[in-house]
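Private note to self, pasted from the team thread so I don't lose it. Backbone tokens:
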């Protein structure tokens, strides 16, 4: 069947009668990324349709709003993703066959916070105090990993370590799905689920811990809600090693089978995503509006959490520094047993699609968002002109 493997997850794999691929699946976290822009602008769907009649849809689409998203088990051979690095590192360590074809570095709000009455004003004041780490009953607790990383690097910067603090686990109790008149009105996960820092807010406000780690828009709001003081402003630290975490860098990954058998589709995906990052440089206001829609918060909060220059931090690359940093975060996850099997990050990277794209741009194809001449499918909405 034209190279289609005989053993794979076929739940969302849809070859047509000729045995050719006719659908791509994507996953993306609700964070600033060039993939998010390209999808919202409709560029990837339109380009794939015009190039090969390919349909593009979300991997997590479901008719049942109570379904749990499969963030960590993207086994489909026709899938691509951009988001936090911890899930794809975890999946790679479990032998999921993916390749990294691009990276972005977008700093976001990352802080250690304490209440004013705690007497903690800076990181060195944490010696002998209680820090709270979230604890979720999931395969990869990436929120715990992010919090642990934040505390580790800031303690190290002051000559301290985890041995100098008391670690308090903050279990996140599952909230059951709520149904009213036959309709699901809330779930334990997703945008209708509980607030991201419910456990941290409860623990610090009730004096159960002295300091917690928070990040992104929700973390910024939690800081303001509590009237907490920032004892470590991680996202503004001058050393990228300190700022390194699940959010930095963010990989763009594709399944190796897709890369091997349909390289022209991967090239198309990369082209549209890369161009979205370049488009953002010239359209700061429109970018902010789209990112606000993506993360589900107001533009003012997005600017606060990701910086007023967020449109300048959405460019894809495969620079050696970002690859090195991805490897350092993988080493951190291995050291603290968030993953159990090591692997080579350098071998995980596939530079060829990016090399082909940059060569194309160098040789004069300045308009990289090329759409072929064919009929646009009915129902396409354009967000910009």
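Design output:
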């Amino acid at each position: 069947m034209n190279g289609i493997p005989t053993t794979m997850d076929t739940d969302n794999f849809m070859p047509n009668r000729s045995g050719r691929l006719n659908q791509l699946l994507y996953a993306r976290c609700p964070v600033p990324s060039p993939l998010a822009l390209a999808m919202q602008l409709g560029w990837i769907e339109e380009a794939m349709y015009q190039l090969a009649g390919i349909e593009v849809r979300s991997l997590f689409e479901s008719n049942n709003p109570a379904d749990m998203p499969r963030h960590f088990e993207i086994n489909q051979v026709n899938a691509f993703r951009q988001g936090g690095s911890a899930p794809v590192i975890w999946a790679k360590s479990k032998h999921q066959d993916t390749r990294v074809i691009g990276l972005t570095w977008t700093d976001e709000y990352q802080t250690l916070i304490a209440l004013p009455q705690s007497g903690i004003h800076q990181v060195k004041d944490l010696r002998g105090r209680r820090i709270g780490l979230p604890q979720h009953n999931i395969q990869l607790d990436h929120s715990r990993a992010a919090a642990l990383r934040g505390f580790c690097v800031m303690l190290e910067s002051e000559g301290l370590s985890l041995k100098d603090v008391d670690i308090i686990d903050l279990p996140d109790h599952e909230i059951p799905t709520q149904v009213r008149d036959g309709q699901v009105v809330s779930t334990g996960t997703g945008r209708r689920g509980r607030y991201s820092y419910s456990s941290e807010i409860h623990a610090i406000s009730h004096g159960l811990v002295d300091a917690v780690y928070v990040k992104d828009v929700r973390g910024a709001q939690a800081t303001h809600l509590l009237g907490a003081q920032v004892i470590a402003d991680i996202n503004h630290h001058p050393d990228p090693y300190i700022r390194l975490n699940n959010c930095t860098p963010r990989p763009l990954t594709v399944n190796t089978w897709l890369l091997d058998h349909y390289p022209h589709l991967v090239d198309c995906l990369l082209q549209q995503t890369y161009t979205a990052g370049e488009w953002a440089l010239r359209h700061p206001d429109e970018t902010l509006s789209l990112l606000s829609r993506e993360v589900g918060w107001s533009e003012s909060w997005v600017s606060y959490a990701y910086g007023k220059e967020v449109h300048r931090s959405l460019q894809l690359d495969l620079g050696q520094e970002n690859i090195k940093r991805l490897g350092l975060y993988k080493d951190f996850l291995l050291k603290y047993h968030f993953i159990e099997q090591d692997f080579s990050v350098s071998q995980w990277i596939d530079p060829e699609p990016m090399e082909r794209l940059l060569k194309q741009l160098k040789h004069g194809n300045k308009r990289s968002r090329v759409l072929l001449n064919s009929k646009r499918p009915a129902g396409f909405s354009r967000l910009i002109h």
